Amino acid sequence: MTPSAARARLRRIWIVIGWIGVGVVVYFSLIPRPPELDIEQGDKIQHFLAYGSLMLWFGQVMTTPPSRRLSGLLLVILGVGLEVAQSFTGYRSYSYADMAANTTGVLIGWALSPPRGPQVFERMLSRFAPGRVL
Question: Percent of the chain beyond pLDDT 90?
Fold first, then answer.
């Protein structure tokens, strides 16, 4: 496998795992009783960590400024959209504070993404020698 083919394959796997993360966030945002941290404002911490992690994850492979801006914007829209969807469930509520936690997570994830933060994707890629099956 050529280095460019290995890069493309790992990138596709990375993006699929990211979309699984998005699915997990959607699932836990819409179920009646999601797990909660047993601390004050624990749900805000969960929102912050979930959206920050997603932005960090996608920020590893969305490296051009336009693609990173789009990723961040789509994650913010996802957070707002899920809050709106929660208001229609009858068992969850719409919360501006949750939207703020989501957006703050995206912004911090963006700030910690490459080139400022660790380049996890590039490090993983360098560990797979050309010819190895990913």
Answer: 72
